[in-house]
Design brief:
- By secondary structure, the chain is α/β, with parallel strands linked by helices.
- It folds into 3 domains: about 80 residues, Orthogonal Bundle (Arc Repressor Mutant, subunit A); about 90 residues, Periplasmic binding protein-like II (D-Maltodextrin-Binding Protein, domain 2), CATH 3.40.190.10; about 100 residues, D-Maltodextrin-Binding Protein, domain 2 (3-Layer(aba) Sandwich).
- The strands form 4 sheets. It has a 5-stranded mixed beta sheet with strand order 4-3-5-15-6, covered by helices on one side. Strands 11-8-12-7-13 form a 5-stranded mixed beta sheet.
- It is elongated, with a radius of gyration of 26 Å.
- The relative contact order is 0.14.
Length: about 300
C-alpha cells in the first residue's frame, strides 16, 4: 500500500512533465532526491513505472495504469474539499462526458459549449459514440444514455422522455398504401438500423404486439435511416427529435399513430456508483436537465 501521497503526486507530475528533475523542483527536491523517491515508489508497488533515458522520461504500461488511478484519487480529494466548502466555488478541473453520436451532435455538444462559457475554469472532454461502454473503466465522470434503462450498478437520473414513432415519405404511402396495424408492416418495406428487425408495440388498449420487419435498406447510421425514409425506401422507426423538422416540412408523415413503439425510451444521466458526486458533475447534471426541459420534441 502506498502510504505517502506525496510520492504518488511526484510520480503524476513526473509522468505529465516527462522529466523527473522538473517534477522534483516543484516539490523543492533535487533531481537525485526526486529520482530516489520515484525508485522508492517503484519498489513499493513492485513494478517499473517510468522508462528513463538521458534525455526523456516516458510512462510504462504499469505506470499508465497507476497514473489513471492516481489522477482520479487527487480529483476525488479536490471534489471532497469543494463539496465541503459549498456550491459557490468556481468550477475547475475536467468534466469527462460520454453520449450518443447523433443526439450528442444535435443537443449535447451545444449544451456543453454553453456550460463551458458559464465556467471559464472548467475543461470538458466530450466523447460521442453509439457504442455503449463502461464509463467507470474508461475514466468518465458521467454519460447521457438514450433507451430503455438496463440493469446496472451506475446511478441514473431520468432527464426526459425520448418518444419513438414510425414515419414514412408521403409518396411511399401513396404508392404502397398505409398500414393499419403492426402486423401489416410485413407487407411493407421498412428501413432497418443495425439489423434490428423485431419491432414491438403497445396498442391503444395496452395490448402488446410484435412483428419481424424486412426491407431493402439496412444501415448502422441513424441519419442514414432518416434519409432513406425521406427518399421513399420504406417505413422507419425514429425518435421524435430526429425527425421533427422533416415532419414539419412534410417530407415525412407519421404511421400507426394509435400504437406506441415499445419499449418506451427515456434519456438518462448516468454516473459511477458510490462516492462523492463531484461539484462539476452535479452542476452539469442540473444544467442539462433544465436544458432538456426546453427541447419541444422531448417529453418530461
Amino acid at each position: 500500500m502506498i502510504n505517502d501521497l506525496k510520492l504518488l503526486e511526484l510520480f503524476v507530475r513526473a509522468a505529465r512533465l516527462g522529466a523527473i528533475g522538473k517534477a522534483g523542483a516543484e516539490f523543492g527536491l533535487s533531481p537525485t532526491s526526486a529520482t530516489q523517491r520515484i525508485q522508492a515508489l517503484e519498489s513499493e508497488v513492485g513494478a517499473q513505472l517510468l522508462h528513463r533515458t538521458t534525455r526523456s522520461v516516458s510512462v510504462t504500461l504499469e505506470g499508465e495504469r497507476l497514473l489513471k488511478h492516481a489522477e482520479r484519487i487527487f480529483e476525488t480529494v479536490q471534489d471532497a474539499m469543494l463539496d465541503v466548502s459549498g456550491e459557490n466555488q468556481v468550477l475547475r478541473g475536467t468534466l469527462r462526458l460520454a453520449g450518443p453520436a447523433s443526439f450528442g451532435r444535435k443537443y449535447i455538444a451545444p449544451f456543453v459549449t454553453e456550460f463551458l462559457s458559464m465556467h471559464p475554469g472548467l475543461t470538458v472532454q466530450l466523447h460521442l459514440s453509439d457504442t455503449v461502454f463502461d464509463i467507470v473503466d474508461n475514466g468518465f465522470d458521467c454519460a447521457i444514455r438514450l433507451g430503455a434503462l438496463e440493469s446496472s450498478s451506475l446511478k441514473a437520473q431520468k432527464l426526459s422522455l425520448c418518444p419513438r414513432i414510425l414515419v414514412a415519405a408521403p409518396d411511399y404511402l401513396k404508392a404502397m398504401g398505409t398500414p393499419q396495424t403492426p402486423q401489416d408492416l410485413v407487407h411493407f418495406d421498412c428501413v432497418i438500423r443495425d439489423a434490428l428487425q423485431n419491432w414491438k408495440f403497445k396498442g391503444p388498449h395496452g395490448e402488446e404486439d410484435a412483428v419481424k420487419v424486412a426491407g431493402r435498406f439496412v444501415t448502422n447510421l441513424a441519419e442514414g435511416v432518416t434519409e432513406a425514409a425521406i427518399s421513399g425506401f420504406g417505413i422507419a422507426r425514429k425518435c421524435t427529435w430526429e425527425v421533427a423538422e422533416h415532419l414539419e416540412s412534410g417530407e415525412l408523415v407519421t404511421v400507426l399513430d394509435r400504437y406506441i413503439v415499445a419499449p418506451e425510451w427515456n434519456i438518462h444521466f448516468m454516473r459511477p456508483p458510490g462516492g462523492i458526486e463531484p461539484l462539476r458533475v452535479r452542476q452539469f447534471r442540473s444544467f442539462i436537465k433544465q436544458k432538456m426541459a426546453q427541447v419541444p420534441t422531448l417529453g418530461q
